[in-house]
Design a protein that fits this description.
Elements: E1 2-9, H1 13-21, H2 23-29, E2 36-43, E3 50-57, E4 63-74, E5 78-83, E6 86-95, E7 98-106, H3 113-133
Antiparallel strand pairs: 1-7, 2-3, 3-4, 4-5, 5-6, 6-7
Helix pairs in contact: 1-2, 2-3
C-alpha cells in the first residue's frame, strides 16, 4: 500500500528543492515531533547516489538511521528512492500558491497507516515551516 502526504510551501521552487536536499537544512527540519531531531545527514543526489539521516530521541533513549539510494532524479521536479525493501517519490509542483511538495511512500507493517501518515506529514510540516521562515 502507498501513502501520500503533501504540503504547499510559499517559496520559490529552487529554495524548496535546495532545502529538501541540503544536509545543513535537513538537520533543521527532519523530525516528526519536538522530542526528536536529526543529528547528521548526507546526500549524494544522483541516480545511484546514497543518502542517510541519523534520527534520535533528544533524551538519547533511541535512534536510527534512515538511509537509501536515489533511483530517479529530475531536478526541481521529482526524486525517487529506495530504502530497504520500500520505495518513495518526492514531487515538486509549482503553482500559483507556492510549491506543492508531495511525498508518496510504501507503507510498512510495524505501525498503523494513520501513524505513518501522521509522522511523515509532521516532518513535511516542519519542512514547510523551515523553508518559509527563511524568506
Amino acid at each position: 500500500m502507498k501513502i501520500t502526504v503533501e504540503t504547499v510551501v510559499d517559496a520559490p521552487i529552487a529554495a524548496v528543492w535546495d532545502a529538501y536536499f541540503t544536509p545543513d537544512d535537513i538537520v533543521r527540519w527532519n523530525a516528526a515531533s519536538e522530542d526528536w531531531h536529526t543529528t547528521k545527514a548526507t546526500v549524494d543526489l544522483r541516480v545511484g547516489g546514497e543518502f542517510s539521516s541519523r534520527m534520535e530521541a533528544k533524551d538519547g533513549s533511541f535512534g536510527f538511521d534512515f538511509a537509501g539510494t536515489y533511483t530517479r532524479v529530475e531536478p526541481l521536479r521529482r526524486v525517487e528512492y529506495a530504502f530497504g525493501d520500500r520505495a518513495a517519490a518526492v514531487e515538486f509542483l509549482e503553482g500559483a500558491g507556492g510549491v506543492t511538495v508531495r511525498v508518496t511512500f510504501d507503507a510498512e507493517a510495524e505501525n498503523s497507516i494513520e501513524q505513518q501518515r501522521d509522522g511523515w506529514l509532521a516532518i513535511l510540516s516542519n519542512f514547510k515551516s523551515h523553508v518559509e521562515s527563511r524568506r
